[in-house]
Amino acid sequence: MRGCDAVLIAGGGVEVLGATSRDHAADLLHAHLIQVLSSIGREHLDVLCLPISRPLPEHAVLGALSGARAAQTEGLVGSLALTGPDPDVAATLLSTNRDLEFALVRPEDVSHFESMERLVVMDAADPGPWLRRGARALVAVSSPEGVRRLASEVAHT
Fold first, then answer.
1. What are residue 133's phi and psi, to 5 degrees?
2. How far apart are CA 83 and CA 54, in angstroms?
3. Lowest mean pLDDT among 101-110, 111-120, 130-139
4. What is the secondary structure of 100-116 as a DSSP string?
5. Which of 28, 31, 116, 155 is the most buried (most CB within 10 A)?
6. Long-range contacts, stretch 73-79, CB < 8 angstroms, 24+ apart
7. What confidence tens digit (pLDDT) does each residue in 125-136 have?
8. Closest among 118, 122, 93, 119 to 107, alpha carbons compared
9. How far apart are CA 157 and CA 63, in angstroms?
10. pTM higher than 0.70, yes or no?
11. How would you label 123-149 residue by residue, b for 16+ Cβ within 10 Å and e otherwise?
């Protein structure tokens, strides 16, 4: 990722469910990405996180991934990731698409994934156990003391 100012898209903003073909899904994703970049005044996103909020038709998933790869090639996007409440779908996509660099995963969903190396565990508490198991951890820190405590914990792993 470039610099320290990563921008992440996550949520229901990318709507490819209604796509009629793979190309249509890619076009919908690309249009949404351009709209987001225009609205935030940036030319590039460090991370594009594709939300998997419900089962999607195969052409919609493949089209969204194709659109994401094209955006990456154009320099509009750095890393590609996914997230969502359906861990089985996310685990399958992560295992079959090497372009996806990681998945944002809730702690209770880690067991759905074969490997820890491409996971970022969303855990607002202690990142140590996840780091020791080979995953990365995303934690909420709201004070300087919290940053010091977290830095100390990470240093010990």
1. -85, -5
2. 11
3. 130-139
4. --EEEE-GGGGGG-S-S
5. 28
6. 75/44, 76/33, 76/34, 76/37, 76/43, 76/44, 76/45, 77/33, 77/44, 77/45, 77/47, 77/48, 78/1, 78/2, 78/6, 78/44, 78/45, 78/46, 78/47, 78/48, 79/1, 79/46, 79/47, 79/48
7. 777 788 888 888
8. 122
9. 39
10. yes
11. beeebbebbeeebebebeeeeeeeeee
Residue 45 pLDDT exceeds 60: yes
Q: 81-85 contacts: CB < 8 A, separation 24 or more?
A: 81/47, 81/48, 81/49, 81/50, 81/120, 82/49, 82/50, 82/51, 82/52, 83/10, 83/49, 83/50, 83/51, 83/52, 84/51, 84/52, 84/53, 85/52, 85/53
- Tokens coding 39: 């609205």
Q: What is the largest CA-CA distance in the chain?
A: 51
Determine the residue type at 105: V
Average pLDDT of the residues of the chain: 80
Task: Give me the amino acid identity at 147.
Answer: V
**Residue ranges of the domains in the chain?**
8-104
